[in-house]
Amino acid sequence: MRQLELDLRGAAGSHIRWMEVAGPPGAPVQVFLHGLGASSSHDFPEIAQHPSLAALGRRSLLVDLLGFGYSDRPADFGYSLEEHARAVAAVLDAERVAAADVVGHSLGGSIGLALAALRPDLVRGLVLGEANLRRGRGQLSRWVADWSEEDFLARGMAEYAALTPWPEYAASRRLADPVALHRSAKGLVHGTDRDLATVLAGHPGPKAFLVGERSRPCEEEPDARAAGARVLTVPDSGHLMLFDNPAGFAERVAESIAR
Description:
Rossmann fold
């Protein structure tokens, strides 16, 4: 586990942490960003080491966003998409990485797009697992964002746990800071100053949008296609595709990055 002390508004002195799956010296880098309430250190080790990705000879960075997993939980941080993107950019700058392939699931995919808008030098390719591309989308994130912060801390987090009973997700959800989860959901619903579908359309590098087979019809798919992203299906899976079918998810990521 690696860590970096941040000097960001609302997070000065806090540490963001990530795991590394080493590759050959000088290998290209792929960065994994998790979804709402999850953590990359929990979600992606098996996927990053899957034979289909290992064969590409990449170095992998599995980043726990601020407020989640092993990273710190600064109470004054805003947890907007742009603020999360600045924290990820600090990690990549510390690792002296440029032109990385960013693999983001759900919230993580939207943060990957925010990163591409903020620091295009850091992002070569984008692999987005059912990321939000328009403001106001995402049934679960909208449900969280509709609570006031005070009420979500008092009652909403417990109800959220009841709404998300999946055992694969429960372990990382228990590590999520409720303030970070609520503010991140609000940031996801609010979006960014630039429409994320427009950011995706303007991205010059490789781009793919992954959809779980059981998620169709997926409201983001038409926008992803219109933005020029290659849309790939992860078989035998829904939105939690990396838990439902980790091998299938890894294979689709490898297929996307290899192009």
